[in-house]
Design goal:
The protein contains nine helices and no strands. By secondary structure, it is mainly α.
């Protein structure tokens, strides 16, 4: 059971490395390293967080969850961290899970909503460096969303076979 245990052993670092490599593979040409790392960290974070998590902001089950939590609830309009979370969740669901979400949701509307969340988070962020990154993510939301979607499709289309004979 040793090789199988090692194969299934996932931690934050290995998950982040997996998504950094995956996003690099789907990026056409050079992309900003900070943007790449941020986008990989979004995917890695939500790969490790349950939709029922009680110790962190849970992964959203659908774009309806994002709408209910971040559009209908107006209490978070001044919280940079919550606005950033909303943008990241739109990126995850409208990007990586685009094919599944497209059947029920207007992806372009959620993409513009996600970009808006990042822009509003940038305007309220105290750290100039983080505000700059969030502003860039707002302006580059659609290209990153498309990269997430491409990575999601490629990972679903790639067969993974476990060699259990070892």
């Amino acid at each position: 059971m040793g090789p199988l245990r090692e194969l299934l052993a996932v931690d934050e670092r290995r998950t982040l490395e997996f998504f950094v490599t995956g996003l690099q593979d789907v990026c056409d040409g050079g992309v900003d390293r900070q943007e790449l790392l941020y986008n990989a960290s979004v995917l890695a974070h939500y790969a490790l967080v349950s939709t029922q998590c009680a110790t962190d902001v849970p992964a959203p089950a659908s774009l309806l969850t994002v709408f209910d939590q971040f559009v209908l609830d107006e209490t978070m309009t001044d919280d940079s961290g919550l606005l950033e979370t909303a943008g990241a969740q739109c990126l995850l669901l409208a990007g990586f899970f685009e094919d599944q979400a497209r059947r029920r949701h207007n992806i372009q509307w959620y993409a513009s909503l996600g970009a808006s969340f990042f822009g509003r988070a940038a305007a309220r962020e105290r750290s100039p460096r983080k505000a700059s990154l969030l502003d860039t993510l707002s302006r580059h939301f659609e290209p990153w969303r498309r990269r997430h979607a491409r990575l999601g499709r490629e990972l679903r289309d790639t067969p993974y076979l476990l060699d259990l004979s070892s």
